[in-house]
């Protein structure tokens, strides 16, 4: 293999020839100019030198002349490889220097390889003698050729300078444009003018500013045809390849033929074109296509370079404009964000992530100052921990610390303190900001004063768990506390008790004195109960007049009984409300865990059962729950079920207790008393089933039946005996509730053509006070019709003289509780005597109930009582027996 020296001042040219020579297996030497090459030839004696002509320091002709004039190296084979000289000039000078082969740039690799092989073969055949160079003739010709080359290069340089100046001017012009459309239109036009093209087409994708939008700009076309031309496909044809490959293309048709570069129909025929991508270092935006030079020539390599340069500059200018617009938009956004942060109603604080300085504050907005009272300058450099003051024991702080350590985000609510020391609830949203290396650089905190919200939530929670009237815990909170108390008692083996308390006869106060008085009474009772219990106990209002007390750590029944007695004793003191002195009482039922129930529902139910038992036993007392009470409950349920069938089955009947007129000694009236003959249980006392009927609402159909049966019986006796007997029937408070009792009784009397005076309505003080306005109105309507009204059990209820004065009453009945002791107890006798005198002074008749002895009868006769009824005279009798009794008296 041979040694080959390659001489060229352009490294790419050297690398191309070197790689080809190396491919053939030759050793390659390289030199940048003739002087360096001459030194290598003298030192290395290469078999072949491939030399450029125009080079700095020493050109190719001068190098060859020195080689030929040196006998040691004059025989060296040399070939020229040039692009700067005309072909005839190069050959003439080469002949004078003994150079037989010249390659002209650009040259295909096959020609280079072939010429290298031919030169090496001829070099081995020729002799070492060399024709000396005619220095004078060579210098003359060399100078002339060099002058011509320099002149052409000067023209080309001037032309290049003009084009570069034009490019610079275009670049400056484009840089000052703000309108994108005008900028792109100018790029297309200037590219066409710069290269002397007939037509210019620019196609660009503006998807970087939003949705994809292909924009088309044309230059050199008629204005009418521009509007009719369709937009080329940015990604198709030769322009599409340029777009994808990011490389320019130059195409020239041969023999005046036409090129198909993929433009739509209607565009000019293409004989020569150059297409360059409009791109920046980061992306391709589109392409510019120049078609057919005005002079009819083909586009040259220089034209391609110029078009690419212009397109590249346009791409950078377009990108810079886009970046500028983005930066301008971002600046406006940042300005807006900064204004929003500064004007935000939320406090915003930025801290530097620096553990050694305890994450100091570097920014705080105006809302922070308004919220805390601390100015911006006062908090700079401080740790935001100062807002906690001494209140560091807050569970949410652990979450906040974890969030800051992990570099995430979180939200907590803390108790913070203003500059004046006042506390406020601060909802803090914290987020870590990371730098380019992923390290935590800052913390951004957004403060929101939620004090009002916390107060509202606390109020809602209190409202949801407390009674609005008394402020006591309600059923919800009681059940929650009871559940916890049971769990703790089970764990520790302790006992607890629940006391169900219900005010006695509270409805009388509510209806008689008004709901305002009733509400005040509930409040005062609640306050007294709170004073009776320990701090750890719970007093709750369940609703209406029902309360419950939960007390834990119970030792035995005696301690619970002591608490119940303490509470009941509070009721002995009068309660003064708006000038009314009220003596309230209560019934209390007690259930103990775990004896009377293992969960809250069982304890509630059994305490309630015990409370009702206390009421049955006379009220104003307490009862512990026992299993026998459940038996009584079951009995009541059985009574209710049977009572619903009693009326349809005809199991109810009226018995009549005669009333003796003491003045005449005759029986002129009687009281109708209801009886229930159960088919299996026998006679059931009214005291057992009347309360059940009132609770279940069955009293209404039963009461209606009593009215119809009593009036029917009056009519029957009148027809059979030709004798009118006044019958008194008892009316429940529930029968007045629907407001149609008077109408019902009047219609019944009219249907039987009975005189209203034959019917007496007996009603208790309690019944009147339950719904006083409605009841009094109906009683007055009946009395106006002629029906007599008797006030039953006088002295056991309110016994208010004011009410007695205004009630429509004809008869006053003295309760048997006063009659039983009139001969033994002076006070009872005095009360009865007073009642008789009072009634007579009010033009009322007086009936004494429960007369059982001659002594009682004598006392009543002596003091002017009008009528008596009782076992001394007669027990209640069925209708037939009463008729017999009536005939005898």
Give the gist of this structure:
This protein is an alpha/beta fold and 889 residues long. It is built from 30 helices and 32 strands. It is rod-shaped.
Overview of the molecule:
The chain is of the alpha/beta class and 889 residues long. Helix content is 47%, strand content 22%. The strands form 6 sheets. Strands 23-24-26-27-28-29-30-31 form an 8-stranded mixed barrel, surrounded by 4 helices. A 5-stranded parallel beta sheet has the order 2-1-3-4-5, with helices on both faces. The termini are far apart.
Key attributes of the depicted protein:
8-stranded mixed beta barrel, single chain, alpha/beta, 5-stranded parallel beta sheet, 889 residues
Write the layout of secondary structure elements.
Blueprint: E1 3-7, H1 11-23, E2 27-31, H2 34-44, E3 48-51, H3 60-68, E4 77-82, H4 87-96, E5 102-104, H5 109-125, H6 135-175, H7 180-195, E6 197-205, E7 214-219, H8 223-228, H9 237-245, E8 249-252, E9 272-279, E10 284-293, H10 301-343, E11 347-352, E12 361-364, H11 366-372, H12 376-379, H13 396-406, E13 409-417, E14 423-434, E15 440-449, H14 451-465, H15 475-492, E16 495-503, H16 506-513, H17 515-532, E17 538-543, E18 546-554, H18 557-570, E19 575-577, E20 580-582, E21 586-593, H19 600-616, E22 621-624, H20 627-646, E23 652-661, E24 666-678, E25 682-684, H21 686-696, H22 699-721, E26 726-730, H23 741-752, E27 759-764, H24 765-770, H25 772-785, E28 788-794, H26 801-806, E29 811-814, H27 816-819, H28 826-841, E30 845-848, H29 854-862, E31 867-868, E32 877-878, H30 879-888
Parallel strand pairs: 1-2, 1-3, 3-4, 4-5, 21-22, 24-26, 26-27, 27-28, 28-29, 29-30, 30-31
Antiparallel strand pairs: 6-7, 6-10, 8-9, 9-10, 11-12, 11-15, 13-14, 14-15, 16-18, 16-21, 17-18, 19-20, 23-24, 23-31, 23-32, 24-25
Helix pairs in contact: 2-3, 6-7, 6-10, 7-10, 16-17, 17-18, 20-21, 22-23, 23-25
